Amino acid sequence: MILVTGGAGFIGAQAVRALHQVGQECVLLQRRAPEIPPHLADLPIAMAQGDITDLDSLRAVGRAHPVSGILHLAVTLPWEAGNGDAVEAARRGVDGFLNIVRVAGEWGVRRLVAASTIGVYGGVAQAGALSEDLPLPLRHLHAIPDLKKITELLAGQLAAGTGIDIVTARISGTWGPGGHLPDPFFPAPSLAWAAAHRTTPDLSGLVHQPYAEDALDLCYVKDTGRALALLQLAPELRHATYNVGSGRATSNAEVVAALASVEPGFHVELPSRDAEPARWLDTTRLREDTGFSPGYDTAAAAADYVAWLRAGNER
């Protein structure tokens, strides 16, 4: 049985579906009452109430379920913990990961896959394909990639000291059913919502003004979830870190064009500027060690996401 922390969330729910499709039983950890969420009600999953920062609650999960693998997607974000105490917030963020490794050892877990982020490449000057071996800047850029860099370093140390197969997955920009609306870092979800509802997109929630030429490695969430399931189940992995993404750069203009092919009345003029050199995740390791290839290109992702939104789904 695979324990999926954050399994009821955006990416976690798709990973659970991918695991189910290959016959894997899952138990999902959530802090609130352990009720199966509506969007996963069609699956035979188990629910457990607990908090990754509460070691006793994690140990209770192992007493109730035969956990053989862990897909760790939950995170205690710095602004959600500590009541304004920056030191306490950082401690809780790291403690959650340490607790997961602790119970993995106690339960004899074969492999622990922990989510990292494309954000760890922030500040890397290289354009083109970003490989896992690139040196990462250690200066502070944003709380989330800061925490992920710390846990990646701890993962290497703890894997060596415990013998657990600890793998970190650097997840690309991800969009699709259940995602953030708006996502603060890229406009694709907000553009899709506007196309589905035949309205003008509200892009005011983004951290930066989006331009037509801006591009990133954009992966549909169903592909992201499947890639994580493949990492969890692969008989052997040769590396400790894997990029999880589409392996190509997708511009905002391409997203707009894909949405317009689904909804011909959709039209938005994003401002233009000289394009910066494109960057994307090098997914060679992922392809070679798991056989992963994306099932959704931009057009297929746009069509699927708009259909989901038009079916009355908002989350």
Straight-line distance between termini: 27 Å
General shape: globular
Largest sheet: 7 strands, parallel
Structurally, the number of domains stands at: 2
Q: What is the average of the pLDDT values?
A: 93
Secondary-structure topology with pairs:
Layout: E1 2-5, H1 10-21, E2 26-30, E3 46-49, H2 55-64, E4 69-72, H3 86-107, E5 111-117, E6 128-130, H4 143-162, E7 165-171, E8 173-175, H5 188-197, E9 215-216, E10 218-220, H6 221-233, E11 241-244, E12 250-251, H7 252-262, E13 279-281, H8 284-290, H9 298-310
Parallel strand pairs: 1-2, 1-4, 2-3, 4-5, 5-7, 6-13, 7-11, 8-10
Antiparallel strand pairs: 9-12
Report on this model:
The protein is α/β, with parallel strands linked by helices and 315 residues long. The chain folds into two domains: 198 residues, 3-Layer(aba) Sandwich (Rossmann fold); 89 residues, UDP-galactose 4-epimerase, domain 1, CATH 3.90.25. 37% of the residues lie in helices and 16% in strands. It is built from nine helices and 13 strands. The strands form four sheets. The protein has a seven-stranded parallel β-sheet with strand order 3-2-1-4-5-7-11, with helices on both faces. It has a two-stranded parallel ribbon with strand order 6-13. Helix 2 runs parallel beside helix 3 and helix 3 packs parallel to helix 4. The longest helix has 22 residues. This is NAD-dependent epimerase/dehydratase family protein.
